[in-house]
């Protein structure tokens, strides 16, 4: 993704964020253990209601990834055809409690130059079936021959740099596989955990998974250093990684969000011979993640982009809906807001979203349909309480706003400090909430004075959030991730980028 500092580029909100302090040190949490329970779940009773809610919200950032495993049934039984129901014989009950198992997975791919003969037609393909049969380890070489080096996005370009990403790939046009995340229940699980729908909500959401790549991380030193996944469209909310059964060690996938870290360790070896298992992990794709070095064998994954779609969620299972009034969050918010937090004077209640959201221009973002984790929950709580929330891109103006860097030139005789005062009187506050997402400067603004320009841009794009705004959360420490957004994606940016957002609720003044 381009980290543009060229003022002639169309600037976007993302570029205007001030660098933030370093994130809190990461608390390592591994797959087998629960997140450390936060003592702040029960805020001390003496705090005012809004402070109690703030403390409660601080502990609500844990939901950003989920994963699981599916054993492979290496000798699949022939499936008995189901008999159609008749009047005397009801339909077969659904075998919902049967453990889900997968058949072995076959991968087929195009062979570019079969037999290496010139002039030979290019339409042959090869295949392997996993888990590999004993003594068929050499089959993996044929698969390797069908791959090409995997690039990634840096500074708006696709680059190959083994120091950052050492991996091989196949494009979806060159391979297919019998693996189906829908029929194995993986997509249902992701929908329930990462994109739940809420009873009565206007946003009933389902997940669509689109196969993206086959990747092979091979020893020695196959890896992908920390990055966030480049969103392919504004409705992309997540990424799914499926690890197919091939012996390897190392290659742990680490996913991070707001100082928390989950490790998916899928290594298999003679010590842990459970290689006849498919393992998977899904996460919100704005979460930073990395793949540690593979120290032996080959780590083979299929990656999918996950999109939020409107639907009934009944693709493979029953619709799962959540009654928001039963969430502790609902109780916490309604108790805190029982008393008007602005004492009748009116103001804005702000919730900095815990995640970043993809948008592109000029198409609107699909928010609130793509809200993630606690952001979705707070949105629904505000809705349920009839508070008319809005979700906006919120930008924080930098002290030295490099993109309009010549503002000081208007006051050449003043010191930086004095010139800065002029700037501060021009813009009432540093926080501006957008009615739209990207900020685009048209030619018109180039012709007016710098200070007027600032004000005009921001009042036409959004509104200033003044001291009457009470923030329930502090903005996520983004300094590292912000750099990662700008510099490292898994593909050079396709028109869609992430923005930081806030959910806002306006409380009118009493009698207004
Ligand atoms: O293979 C994996 O574990 C994930 C790969 C990844 O992060 C990516 O392709 O963007
Ligand atoms: Fe990734």
From TrEMBL:
Q: Which domain of life is it from?
A: Eukaryota
Q: Which Pfam families match?
A: 2OG-FeII_Oxy_3
The membrane spanning regions, by residue number, are: none
Q: Which InterPro entries match?
A: Oxoglu/Fe-dep_dioxygenase_dom, Pro_4_hyd_alph_FE2OG_OXY
Q: Where is this region: Disordered?
A: 1-51, 66-105
Q: Where is the Fe2OG dioxygenase domain?
A: 203-308
The identity of this protein, by name, is Fe2OG dioxygenase domain-containing protein
What organism is recorded for this protein?
Bionectria ochroleuca
């Amino acid at each position: 993704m381009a980290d543009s500092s060229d003022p002639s580029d169309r600037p976007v909100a993302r570029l205007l964020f001030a660098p933030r302090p370093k994130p809190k040190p990461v608390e390592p949490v591994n797959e087998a253990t629960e997140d450390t329970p936060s003592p702040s779940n029960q805020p001390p009773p003496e705090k005012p209601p809004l402070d109690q809610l703030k403390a409660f919200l601080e502990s609500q950032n844990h939901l950003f990834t989920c994963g699981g495993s599916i054993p492979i049934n290496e000798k699949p039984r022939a499936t008995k055809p189901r008999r159609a129901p008749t009047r005397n014989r009801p339909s077969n009950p659904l075998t919902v409690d049967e453990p889900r198992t997968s058949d072995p997975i076959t991968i087929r791919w195009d062979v570019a130059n079969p037999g290496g003969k010139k002039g030979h037609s290019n339409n042959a393909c090869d295949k392997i079936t996993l888990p590999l049969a004993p003594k068929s380890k050499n089959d993996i070489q044929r698969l390797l021959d069908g791959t090409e080096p995997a690039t990634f996005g840096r500074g708006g370009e696709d680059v190959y740099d083994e120091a950052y990403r050492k991996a091989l790939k196949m494009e979806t046009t060159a391979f297919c596989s019998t693996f189906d995340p829908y029929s194995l229940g993986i997509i249902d699980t992701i929908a329930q955990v990462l994109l739940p729908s809420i009873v009565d909500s206007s946003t009933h959401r389902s997940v669509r998974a689109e196969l993206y790549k086959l990747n092979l991380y091979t020893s020695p030193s196959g890896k992908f250093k920390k990055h966030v996944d480049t969103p392919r469209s504004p409705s992309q909310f997540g990424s799914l990684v499926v690890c197919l059964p091939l012996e390897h060690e190392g290659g742990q996938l680490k996913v991070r969000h707001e100082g928390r870290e989950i490790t998916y360790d899928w290594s298999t070896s003679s010590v842990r011979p459970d290689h006849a298992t498919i393992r998977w992990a899904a996460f919100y794709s704005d979460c930073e993640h990395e793949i540690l070095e593979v120290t032996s064998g080959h780590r083979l994954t299929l990656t999918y982009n996950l999109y939020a779609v409107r639907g009934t969620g009944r693709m493979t299972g029953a619709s799962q809906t959540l009654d928001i009034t039963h969430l502790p969050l609902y109780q916490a918010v309604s108790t805190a807001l029982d008393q008007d937090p602005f004492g009748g004077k009116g103001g804005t209640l702000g919730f900095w979203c815990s995640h970043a959201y993809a948008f592109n221009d000029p198409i609107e973002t699909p928010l609130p349909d793509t809200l993630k984790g606690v952001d979705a929950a707070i949105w629904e709580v505000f809705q349920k309480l009839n508070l008319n929330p809005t979700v906006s891109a919120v930008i924080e103006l930098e002290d030295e706003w490099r993109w309009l860097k010549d503002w000081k030139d208007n006051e050449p005789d003043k010191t930086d400090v004095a010139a800065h005062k002029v700037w501060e009187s021009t813009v009432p506050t540093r926080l501006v909430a957008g009615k739209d997402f990207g900020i685009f400067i048209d030619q018109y603004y180039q012709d007016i004075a710098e200070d007027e320009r600032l004000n005009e841009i921001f009042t036409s794009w959004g509104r200033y959030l003044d001291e009457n705004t009470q923030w329930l959360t502090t903005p996520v420490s983004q300094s590292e991730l912000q750099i990662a957004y700008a510099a490292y994606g898994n593909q050079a940016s396709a028109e869609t980028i992430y923005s930081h957002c806030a959910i806002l609720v306006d409380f009118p003044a009493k009698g207004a």
